[in-house]
UniProtKB/TrEMBL annotation, chains A, B:
<keyword id="KW-0238">DNA-binding</keyword>
<keyword id="KW-0804">Transcription</keyword>
<dbReference type="InterPro" id="IPR046335">
    <property type="entry name" value="LacI/GalR-like_sensor"/>
</dbReference>
<dbReference type="InterPro" id="IPR010982">
    <property type="entry name" value="Lambda_DNA-bd_dom_sf"/>
</dbReference>
<keyword id="KW-0805">Transcription regulation</keyword>
<dbReference type="InterPro" id="IPR000843">
    <property type="entry name" value="HTH_LacI"/>
</dbReference>
<dbReference type="Pfam" id="PF13377">
    <property type="entry name" value="Peripla_BP_3"/>
</dbReference>
<protein>
    <submittedName>
        <fullName>LacI family transcriptional regulator</fullName>
    </submittedName>
</protein>
<dbReference type="Pfam" id="PF00356">
    <property type="entry name" value="LacI"/>
</dbReference>
<dbReference type="InterPro" id="IPR028082">
    <property type="entry name" value="Peripla_BP_I"/>
</dbReference>
<feature type="domain" description="HTH lacI-type">
    <location>
        <begin position="9"/>
        <end position="63"/>
    </location>
</feature>
Amino acid sequence: MGEEIRRALTLEDVASAAGVSRATASRALTGSDTTSTPARERVRAVAERMGYTPNTVARALAGGVGARVVVAASGPAPDVLDDPYMWRVLGATAAACDGEGIGVSLQWLPLDAPASLHRLAADRSVRGVVLVNSTERLLAELPDALRGRVASIGIGSADVPSFDVDNRAGAGAVVRHLHATGRRRIAMLAGPQWLPCSWRSAQVYSEVVQAAGLPVRVLPGDFGFENGRSGALEVLRRWPDTDAIFAICDAAALGAMAALRGLGVQVPGDVAVAGFDDLPVAAWSGPALTTATHPVTRIATGAATAVLAGAPAEGTTWYPSELVLRESA
Amino acid sequence: MGEEIRRALTLEDVASAAGVSRATASRALTGSDTTSTPARERVRAVAERMGYTPNTVARALAGGVGARVVVAASGPAPDVLDDPYMWRVLGATAAACDGEGIGVSLQWLPLDAPASLHRLAADRSVRGVVLVNSTERLLAELPDALRGRVASIGIGSADVPSFDVDNRAGAGAVVRHLHATGRRRIAMLAGPQWLPCSWRSAQVYSEVVQAAGLPVRVLPGDFGFENGRSGALEVLRRWPDTDAIFAICDAAALGAMAALRGLGVQVPGDVAVAGFDDLPVAAWSGPALTTATHPVTRIATGAATAVLAGAPAEGTTWYPSELVLRESA
DNA sequence: CTGAAAGCGCTAACAA
DNA sequence: TTGTTAGCGCTTTCAG
């Protein structure tokens, strides 16, 4: 014994080795109930020495809770799951859940089918849900059964704590930087109409630009490279004197840069380009992308932790969005 | 009833509504055992109508299997988990497991601690393991308890089926393309020494280059942008007449391009640059990156499916690596 | 503070 | 083919 772990140990093994009942061993290990100090320490030492790993599955079944956290991303089509951002959120969520022996799943929540949330609520294998890109409609339909074990990355509600980046501040900083460096015809490639937390950036853009007496030039779109490329072309077609483009996502900003390159337009000489999110690739382009950095991992960790804790936080936890100056603007 | 799902249904509810025993309902739903056609269809119809979702947790406990699949990435340090590639594998694995209602976890397997595999083997909440970047040493230490429920993305063994990209073919195609387009001083920024499946590419590079009577110029490193940047500088310092750089990963290739750009070296005019993997960013750079494409999602899906099926495939399933010609080479 | 006993929801023998 | 009976490993009343 010691080195070699043969068949998996059960709590019973630990309990009998420590000379206590299974119930006491359980209490000692979970700390859920009072135990005498000596008993507790003995049980813990024995468990440690034997290399005991609690079976999360049995624990979940007995406790009446699920064994996985679902990252549920809403959007118009299932391909919202096919996205590096989602994978990153999933990775961070997995990291946060791993300590508890809990796995994660990734699912699509159709925008127009709030019932899909009820599926999750009815599934007793689900411990909790991390909502991504949620909408007010979806939040309004939140099943009672989910209350207290759901968190949102993006907008929240009275029942759903939210973990979000302060993109008002971030977008404002970007636009003000463009203005401060002499840009006077600033266009924005904004996000999807259906996504509330992407409106905020566009709104701030409009406010700042109007306050400076500059024209408002917004094009809605999505977060992708292709949208950035076509969006930039459209911007220059509609407003040829544009001297700066602020894209809602770095990928779109890179698309805009590619379009400008194709047109022989110098960045940042002729047109400045700024992104949003600070994806790793933002630092890799030539010229490197000026953007606002978002702590996606920390945000996802916060949301996952809230879900695991079960109905703690209320309201919104804001994470900073900070300007990162590189070469493109 | 119908629309509103109140408290979660159990198999018992379905069984009694269908007028059969719980066992029969179970058999009808899982298809694990023979059931009369009318009974089976009745049970299924009732389950469907009531909106019954089996509790994966209870299922796993009763079946003596786990409820999550662990994506276990080996490497020298825990930061191997902090990698878009791992998140992508995790996402694909999650997608493959979602149908069965099982979650995924992401864990680090220290290179020098094969015992960490025993931890996973001893954890009864683990349904199976997808190994990423595994080494021969790790595979040799495979615990018996894991046999039949593990698959590897990368090298495999007699006990571990492997799902891998045919990077010999892909790397060969890249190098031959460089040669065919007139490059005669081709350097390679290779992968880590400890990672077997990255050796193959370097080996093929050497073979092709030697067969063509060209000099072998290899620098080991890792898959990162920074390594590509410093590697390219080192290449030009040691072999100033280099006219092509083949990097083991697109991120490194972009790093090399950034270094060359800083030096005022034209790509592909002075030096061609080729990557490997075909990450999304490969198409976004200026110039766009010539590389070899790898179906990471399909590979991960294959591995996850094998793990869920439980000990089906043996040997290696190869996935194609195909040359993608863009602008950089 | 601790032990005995009753489940959590499901699958898998074992009978019928 | 079906129902009955035991558990899977754990948490949690409920007594003691």
